[in-house]
Recover the amino acids of this structure.
C-alpha cells in the first residue's frame, strides 16, 4: 500500500493553511495582536495573520489566527480506536437481549463528581435521544436508571449494586485540572474494590474531551467521545455483554 501524505488546505489544495484560536491574558490592543502572531510563529505558522481578535473581560483577548504550516500528515501513521462491533437497530438489540440474556439488561448512568453537564448522558439515555436516534430508555429490553448530575462515586456504586447493573455509564464533560480523568480513575477503582472480578458491571465513560485510547489507563472497558449516538452504545452493550462474552465462554 502506498504511503499517504497530505497537507492542510485553505485556499488552494495543499497550501498548508490552518486556522487556530486561543486566548492570551493581555488586554486587546496592537501589542496583543503582535503577541498572538509571535505565538503562532512559534507554533510553526509562517506567515500568520490575526483574522479575529476580541476582548474577553478585563485583561484577556481571544484570537483567531490564520496561517501556513509546513508540516505533513502521514495517514499511515494515524492511530485511532475503530468501532470493532456491529451497529444494530433497536429491534435487533431487543431481540438479542431477550433471546440470549432472557432478562432485561440493567444500565445505570450518571454525571459524577461536581460535573452538572447532563445533556450528554441524557442524550444517550433519555427517550428523546439525539441525532434522530432514540435513547436507551426507548429500548424495551433495557432497564435504565439515570441518576442525573453531581453523583458521588459511593452513591453510584450503591445504586449499581441495588439495580444489579450490567453496565455503568458515566459522563464527564468538565476537564479543568483533568477532573474527568481523576473522577474516572476514582470510579473504576471503587468498582474494583467493591465488587469481585467477573461480578463487576461493564464500566463505560463518555464526554467530548476523552481520548478514546485511554481505557487501560483509566480502568474502564470503553470510552465514547463527542458525537456518540445511543445506537452505538446499545450495540456495544450487546457486543460486550452478550455476543463477545458468549464467544469467550
Ligand atoms: C450546556 C452547558 C452548560 C450547562 C449544563 C446544563 C446541563 N444540564 O447539562 C450549564 C449552564 C449548567 C453549565 C455550567 C458550567 N459549565 Co458548561 N457548558 C455547556 C455547553 C455550552 C454545552 C454542553 C452540552 O450540552 N453539549 C451537548 C452534548 C450533547 O454534548 P456532549 O456533552 O459532548 O455529549 C455527547 C458526547 O460527548 C457523548 N457523551 C457525553 N457523555 C457521555 C457519557 C456516556 C456514558 C457516553 C456513552 C457518551 C457520552 O455523547 C453525547 C451525545 O453525542 C459547553 C460548551 C460546548 N459548546 O460544548 C459548556 C462547557 C462544557 N462548560 C464549561 C464550564 C467551564 C462550565 C462551568 C464551570 C461554568 C462556571 N464557571 O460556572 C459550569 C460548571 C457546572 C458544573 N458544576 O458542572 C466548559 C468546560 C471547560 C473545561 N475544559 O472543562 C465548556 C466547554 C464551555 C467553555 N468553552 O468554557 N454548562
Amino acid at each position: 500500500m502506498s504511503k499517504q501524505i497530505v497537507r492542510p488546505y485553505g485556499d488552494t489544495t495543499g497550501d498548508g493553511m490552518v486556522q487556530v484560536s486561543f486566548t492570551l491574558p493581555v488586554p486587546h490592543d496592537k501589542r496583543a495582536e503582535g503577541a498572538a502572531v509571535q505565538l503562532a510563529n512559534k507554533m510553526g505558522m509562517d506567515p500568520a495573520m490575526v483574522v479575529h481578535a476580541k476582548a474577553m473581560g478585563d485583561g484577556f483577548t481571544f484570537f483567531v489566527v490564520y496561517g501556513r504550516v509546513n508540516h505533513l500528515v502521514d495517514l499511515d501513521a494515524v492511530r485511532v480506536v475503530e468501532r470493532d462491533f456491529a451497529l444494530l437497530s433497536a429491534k435487533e438489540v431487543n431481540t438479542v437481549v431477550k433471546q440470549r440474556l432472557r432478562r432485561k439488561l440493567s444500565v445505570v448512568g450518571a454525571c459524577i463528581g461536581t460535573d452538572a453537564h447532563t445533556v450528554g448522558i441524557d442524550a444517550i439515555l433519555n427517550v428523546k435521544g439525539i441525532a434522530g436516534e432514540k435513547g436507551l430508555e426507548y429500548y424495551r429490553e433495557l432497564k435504565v436508571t439515570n441518576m442525573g448530575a453531581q453523583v458521588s462515586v459511593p452513591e453510584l456504586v450503591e445504586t449499581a449494586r441495588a439495580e444489579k447493573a450490567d453496565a455503568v455509564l458515566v459522563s464527564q464533560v468538565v476537564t479543568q485540572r483533568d477532573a474527568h480523568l481523576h473522577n474516572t480513575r476514582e470510579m473504576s477503582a471503587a468498582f474494583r474494590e467493591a465488587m469481585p472480578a467477573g461480578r463487576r458491571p461493564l464500566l463505560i465513560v463518555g464526554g467530548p474531551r476523552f481520548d478514546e485510547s485511554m481505557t487501560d489507563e483509566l480502568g474502564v472497558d470503553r470510552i465514547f467521545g463527542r458525537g456518540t449516538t445511543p445506537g452505538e452504545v446499545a450495540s456495544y452493550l450487546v457486543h460486550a455483554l452478550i455476543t463477545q462474552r458468549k464467544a469467550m465462554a
Notes: Strands lie at 5-6, 17-24, 48-55, 61-68, 73-74, 105-111, 142-146, 167-171, 202-206, 222-224. The radius of gyration is 23 Å. The longest strand covers residues 17-24. The helical segments are 30-42, 90-101, 119-125, 153-162, 179-194, 215-218, 230-248.
